Amino acid sequence: MVVDKDPVALLVIDMQQGMSGMASGERNNPSAESNIENLLAAWRRNRLPIIHIRHISRTPESPFWPGQPGVEFQLHFLPLAGEHIVEKNVPDAFVCSGLERWLHVRDIRQIVIVGVSTNNSIEATARTAGCLGFKVHVVEDGTFAFPKRDFSGVQRSASEVHAMSLANLDGEYASILSAAQALKMF
């Protein structure tokens, strides 16, 4: 892997209380949280930029509706002072959030993405970031997905959904890394 010496920001997407205990079925990557914690600790030790992204729903019944406990960050992923927080209302963290401008003002052109869920907010954010010209890395064992029916009605496992989403991104919008590889970026 070629290490780019430009500043690299860590985007931690939707690691909120509403994501722990989702009723969407069994998920893949049970060690994702541990991998995200390790990456977050490394970014903090190296004083690199960290952006915490939080979903705020437009649907009152959602656990991510303002004022609900589900909106709050999980305890292991609470932002520290000086770490940027972005709130979004759609899966893509760049839409109507100011994230692109925040990165450009700080001359950050490279991002590492972790969080949930691979085929939703992770994929949407990575696609836009790639289209905007950022060098994007998605940490395959720092994200996870849930089972889902495909368009033909076939039930797909969380691992299949996760793998297809990563395949959609790989090479065109992002590079796919392991947490161990991401730790070697600096």
From TrEMBL:
Entry keyword annotation includes Hydrolase: yes
Pfam families: Isochorismatase
Molecular functions per Gene Ontology: hydrolase activity
CDD domains for this protein: nicotinamidase_related (cd01014)
Record keywords: Hydrolase
InterPro entries assigned: Isochorismatase-like_dom (IPR000868), Isochorismatase-like_hydrls (IPR050272), Isochorismatase-like_sf (IPR036380)
Domain spans labelled Isochorismatase-like: 9-170
Protein name (database record): Nicotinamidase-related amidase
